[in-house]
Amino acid sequence: MSFVEVLPQILAPFKGVKGVALEEYFTSGHRTCQGCESALVMKLMIKAAGDRTIVLGSTGCMYVANTTYYTTPWVVPWMHTQLGSSGSAALGTAAALKALMRKGKMKSEPINVIAFCGDGGGADMGLSAISATLTHRDYNCLILMYDNESYANTDIQLSGSTPYGAYTTFSPAGKVKRIMHKRWKKNMAGMMAAGHPECRYVATVCPTYAVDMMNRVRKALTLGGPTFIHSLDPCPKGWDYDPMYSHELGEMAIKCGIFPLYEVEDGKLSYYGQTKYLVEGRTKRLPVREYLNRQGRFAHFLEEDIEYFQAKVDEMWEKWLLPGVLPLTKE
Ligand SMILES: Cc1ncc(C[n+]2csc(CCOP(=O)(O)OP(=O)(O)O)c2C)c(N)n1
Ligand code: SF4
Ligand SMILES: [Mg+2]
């Protein structure tokens, strides 16, 4: 039996909006909320990947609202997988393709495998499966975690990715206890980058910056091996704002430095987009106040809560060994 190496697809970066492919593979037929940025992530992700792609989706809004009985917006092969299993679904599919090609049961060609998960399914429930997949250098698969900062599909419960103090159905603000959720958000991309030496590529993205986002997906797929992308997706329902402000909130999250944009390729870190300007001192970080005030989930915040939030973000930038990426401090 001869060994067949399954090469990744070579996907050159899109050069600006005009260079973006016109074809859509996530079309009409979904029932996500108006202004849902996670749906936009799906659309951009598959536009970037192209039609020779298999998409695997773990349970969550992007499964449930996208596959209402007999309807789906997906034009490429798509499969639902269990909530915590985006990692195993990605690895299993990549391994199956490789085996079928090795046995001559299907044509040997590069096929993208992308498994997506929400923050509940990825940063909490499926963390071990994602971690395991990122140790398998021999398989080409991308795991994309779309982070709407809650278990949204089951009515906005708190996840490890929910920001400090946010109102969720598990952390409602009350008269006795104003702040129910006192933990800082999990650092998912930093954790994946720092802890998985076999993982070729980790990136953070935000769909507000669509071309940048698509080019990170294209780079991950082109590099091959196991790769991971974390996107921050404003969610009008969970974050409680008018859907018309989705893009604006994404932009503010980046410009406030709450969610730094960076990529780690074979262990080498580089910042990009607005975050690069912040790191280079070309622009100043916006205060978090307006970002918080624009969202109903922080409506119970008093001045001291805003100040605490700001101090924590300042710490990410001023004290962390790699600003916004690695929460270690030097002696
Ligand atoms: C093992 C398991 N536990 C609980 C559920 C119920 N459930 C379905 S979707 C969902 C929320 C998932 O949250 P997240 O992964 O963040 O995706 P989102 O809904 O926010 O898009 C939950 C808890 C389930 N489907 N499977
Ligand atoms: S609840 Fe949030 S993530 Fe879910 S469909 Fe609505 S906007 Fe999208
Ligand atoms: Mg979620």
Mean pLDDT: 96
Sheet of most strands: 8 strands, mixed
Report the portion of residues in β strands.
5-15%
What is the top-level CATH class? Alpha Beta
Determine the fraction of residues in helical runs and give it as a percent range: 25-40%
Order of helices and strands: HEHEHEHHEHEHEHHEEHHH
Runs in which pLDDT lies below 50 for 5 or more consecutive residues are none
Query: How is the CATH topology named?
Result: Rossmann fold
Find the CATH superfamily. Answer: Thiamin diphosphate (ThDP)-binding fold, Pyr/PP domains
For this entry, what is the oligomeric state of its chains? single chain
Provide a quick synopsis of the model:
By secondary structure, this protein is of the alpha/beta class. It has helices at 37-49, 61-64, 86-102, 119-125, 127-133, 188-195, 210-223, 236-240, 246-255, 273-279, 289-293, 303-318; strands spanning 53-58, 78-81, 112-118, 141-147, 201-205, 226-232, 262-265, 268-271. The mean pLDDT is 96.
Notes on the protein architecture:
It is a single chain. With 331 residues, the chain is α/β, with parallel strands linked by helices. The protein has one domain: Thiamin diphosphate (ThDP)-binding fold, Pyr/PP domains (Rossmann fold). The protein has twelve helices and eight strands. It has helices spanning 37-49, 61-64, 86-102, 119-125, 127-133, 188-195, 210-223, 236-240, 246-255, 273-279, 289-293, 303-318, and strands spanning 53-58, 78-81, 112-118, 141-147, 201-205, 226-232, 262-265, 268-271. Iron/sulfur cluster (SF4) binds at residues 32-33, 36, 38, 61, 65, 148, 152, 235-238.
